[in-house]
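Predict the 3D structure for this chain.
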Amino acid sequence: MHAITISEPGGPEALVWSEVPDPVPGEGEVLVEVTASAVNRADIMQRQGFYDPPPGASPYPGLECSGRVAALGPGVSGWSVGDEVCALLGGGGYAEKVVVPAGQLLPVPEGIDVTRAAALPEVVCTVWSNVFMVSHLRPGETLLVHGGSSGIGTMAIQLAKAVGAKVAVTAGTEEKLGRCAELGADILINYREQDFVAEVKEATGGAGADVILDNMGAKYLNRNVQALAVNGRLAIIGMQGGRKAELDIGTLLAKRAAVSATSLRARPLEEKAAIVAAVREHVWPLLAEGHVRPIVDRELPMSDAPAAHRVVEESGHIGKVLLVTP
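Done. Predicted structure below.
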């Protein structure tokens, strides 16, 4: 088969469409013929040499994919060859075939094209696990999403609105904010021109955000805590703004607030399987009913992975950038 390999850490040109050995499914695993994968920030970090795959995972980038079941490993039940699926991966999505633990497989949702389904697993599992399973967003509460026009952001807006929450977003252009509004965002904040702490406080009558989904890390830590409501929950899922910052514990105590930080890729298989099961139970019906949909910016041939990485690095997209196999 062919896969995108990384010859050595570096720029997008380090991604090479190469012939590699076919993977073989082991105990409890399924072989998937890949239709499409999607570009995530973690893929860029791996290409740069900053985010190695967890032990036992494929060395190729790609944290999600869609396609069809090609073979079942020993001990797998509930799936059949030919099933259209999408999957959460530890790596290996940028390839023509990938092996997936059966607990990380999902059926392609009713009404969703198999190619576009590649835009779902990573973002849905990330949003559901952080905003709902950890931070317990409830109807009537306010969610602040940083990077509202990203793949994570566009999904967070839709899921929060589906459960009856109010949504504030930050983005860097009026076009991106407009797209967020189309998805249901109530409070639109241009982070280049406005102070998100002040804007959220004003829009909530001084209360602040009940839950904040943050991809920035250090750069936004103290301002996020300032923007939290009493009993607020800050969920950190990225470090685009750095990894070290001082935290005012006094403010956190006064607000009886919580800060959580999670990653998905390196979790044990049983934890990933539990998240995937929760997503299938709670989110898949919303997709089938049309309340939530994948937001896809563009589709590129998988061999054009360098171009796709440039688009994402330049933040020149809204939603997900997909890589489609030949």
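The longest strand covers residues 29-38.
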